[in-house]
Every structure is written in C-alpha cells, then in structure tokens.
Design a protein that fits this description.
The protein has 372 residues and is of the alpha+beta class. Helices cover 22% and strands 12% of the residues. It has a three-stranded antiparallel beta sheet with strand order 8-7-9. The chain has a three-stranded antiparallel beta sheet with strand order 10-13-14, with helices on one face. A hairpin with a 3-residue loop joins strand 3 and strand 4. It is globular, with a radius of gyration of 29 Å.
Length: 372
C-alpha cells in the first residue's frame, strides 16, 4: 500500500494584547462610562428641576385658592431682627422667632407715581430684599401647627398622644392639618389687636385665637372653644422629606434647615417647604398699607427684589427698577405686575440677593414663579 504524506501542520502563534491596545480599550470604556454618568447626572438634575417647577406651580395654585377664600395673599412671616427691628431671638422655642408677622417696608414714593429710588437709604434697600418668608407657605397652605399657633389642629397631651377627653378643644380639632381663618390682618389678630405684655405688634405670641374677648398678658387662648370655618390644607405633601425645620439663618438671609431626625425637638422648629434640591422655597409678596393685606402699596413692586430678576431679557421684557449693588436696574415686567412670587435656589443651591448677575453665576439657575 502506498502511504500518503500528512500535510504539514501550520504552527499557530497566539499573540496577546499590546499595552497600547489595552490602553485604547480602557480609554473607550472610560469614555463610555463617563458619558453615561454625565447623561444620568444631567437626567437626574432635569428631573429635580421639573419636580421643583411642578411643586412651585402647585404652591401658586394653593395661594390662589387661599386668596379666593380670604380676599388676600398670606403675609410675610419671619424674624423681625432680619428686617431691622423687633424681636431679636435666634433660637426656636423663643417667642415667635421666624413665625412673627412682619410689617411691609415703608419706602419713599407715591401711589400714583411709584417709587422714588433716590430717597431710599442703603438700609431700606437691604431690608426690602429681606422681606420674604420661608415659613409662610406651610403655615398658611398646610397649617403645620396646633390650636395654640393657628387656631386649628390637635394639641398633643404630655405623652405626645392625641387627647382622649372628647370635651377638650384639641379633641375637636382633628384632623391636624388646616387653619382657622386668620382674620382681617392675616395674622390671627397679632398685628391689629396684639396682646398686652408682648414685644410689639405681629409677634407669634400675640395671636388672638379666641373669637370672644382677646387674651391678656402672655397667656394663650387655647382653652376657648373656637368656632367658625376652617381653611385648607391647600397643598398635598407626599412625604416628610418635603418638610424642613429652620434652625437659623446665614448672614445673607438663607435659612439653615434640618430634616426630621437630624435635630432634637424637630416638631418645635418653624417649618418650611423644601424643593427637590433640599432648600426652602421662598415666598415674596407685594407690600400693603395700614396693616391691611387686601390693599396694595404701589411705592415699590416685586421688580425691586433683586433675586427675582432674570439673567437675560428678551425684546421688550425689561423695565427699570431699584438699582442693585452693581447699579444694574434691569428687572422684568412680570415681576412689576405680579402680586406674589416664589423662589427656588436651583441646582447649585445658592443665590446672591444683592446682585442680579454676579461673576460666580449664583443666580443663573434660580427658579422663579410669579403669581397673578
């Protein structure tokens, strides 16, 4: 038999990746991951902006409903020392603190001719920027308090439990959310008819909640059986994470906020409504005359509030208002025409209340909503 020669076997040379190839592959993988991270971060940022805008639109609707029932916008609640006078306490548990009703700034001008900016002092200009509130929104739209605070809601017993005696005011005020009609001054009588023995008009401790004779001295009137229409709540809060407790203020007026569980006695802290970046939504409104929130002070407008001014203007959108710290007087027509406004500090969680457009860009991502 003839034999057949086997074909020569080819030698197979196995070659690994070179260092350059590995680096190229790693670079591609890192680039893809970086793109995904940036995309996911941008998507999360956009989602938070959208949720904050939705929240602010809901607040605008709630404020509009409140005005329809009472005839006025809620007043500004805060710390009187923040705007130049009054109570100087800076810790919750002290009288009022940032739940005192603040009188609107009184500035030079006329009801028909408008403001006279040249007559405004530096202090008056600064105080005007501080006339805003982080506590008004939950106070008037949710009623986050008990009967000693807004005339509606349960007063807890010493153990923190609901009252068991059906013949007590607290028992009759369930559910807890909502408020009793704040009255003609918007502050449960604290501005127009303050109690004797307290530190001036409008303070938290001066709220006269009884419908009969006002209380005297520093005693409250929660022992009285309050009657009458309850209001609200005007806003739905889906979780406790949307509510913060204010523990102080930074030098620029920014509230310092704690969340539930972060501080002791969280229930005692004045409450604010948080945007989806964890910062308070700030409430501004037009001034009014003679303690009547139904009136309008036309010697200044929301166009004079620097933090509400946009970074850029479209054709015909701008008007002149109070010059800021850079002598920039540009403001929007929407601000000049609006009765109230809401402000979120936006994704960077920062603001500059003195300059419309600063070099750090603090106000560029502010989210602003104007009411009618």
């Amino acid at each position: 038999m003839m034999g057949f020669a086997r074909p020569a076997q080819r030698s197979v040379i196995r070659r690994g990746f070179t260092v350059v190839e590995i680096l190229v592959v790693l670079g591609i993988v890192i680039g893809v991951i970086s793109t995904l991270i940036v995309g996911l971060g941008y998507g999360a940022r956009r989602a938070r902006i959208a949720n904050t805008e939705f929240l602010m639109n809901s607040i605008v609707a709630g404020l509009t409903r409140f005005r329809a029932e009472t005839g006025y916008m809620p007043p500004i609640l805060g710390v009187p020392s923040q705007v130049g006078s009054g109570v100087t306490g800076t810790a919750f548990g002290q009288l009022g603190w940032c739940r005192d009703m603040l009188d609107p700034p009184s500035l030079a001008g006329t009801q028909n001719g408008g403001p006279t900016y040249g007559s405004w002092s530096t202090t008056q200009r600064q105080n005007l920027q501080k006339w805003c509130s982080a506590t008004t929104i939950p106070e008037y739209l949710l009623g986050l308090g008990d009967r000693s605070q807004d005339g509606y809601g349960v007063i807890m017993e010493g153990t923190g439990a609901l009252p068991t005696n059906t013949n007590t005011p607290g028992y009759r005020e369930q559910p807890a959310l909502g408020i009793r009609n704040p009255g003609s001054d918007g502050g449960w009588g604290s501005l127009l008819n303050p109690r004797s023995g307290t530190q001036g008009k409008g303070v938290f401790g001066s709220r006269n909640l009884a419908s009969s004779a006002p209380a005297t001295g520093n005693s409250d009137s929660t022992s009285a059986f309050l009657r009458g229409k309850s209001l609200g709540p005007y806003l739905e809060v889906k979780s406790d994470s949307e509510i913060g407790g204010i523990t102080g203020f930074q030098t620029d007026g920014t509230p310092i906020v704690a969340k539930p569980g972060e501080i002791n006695n969280f229930d005692l802290a004045p409450k604010c409504l948080l945007d989806f970046f964890g910062k308070p939504v700030i409430f501004y409104r037009r001034g009014y005359l003679n303690g009547d929130p139904r009136s309008t002070d036309r010697t200044w407008s929301l166009a004079d509030i620097v933090a509400l001014r946009p970074q850029r203007f479209g054709p015909g959108e701008d008007v002149d208002a109070m010059p800021d710290a850079n002598n920039d007087s540009g403001a929007s027509r929407a601000a000049m025409a609006s009765e109230f406004a809401l402000l979120s500090f936006g994704p960077d969680q920062r603001w500059n209340p003195t300059i419309r457009a600063d070099t750090e860009g603090y106000n560029e991502d502010n989210i602003v909503r104007f009411g009618p």
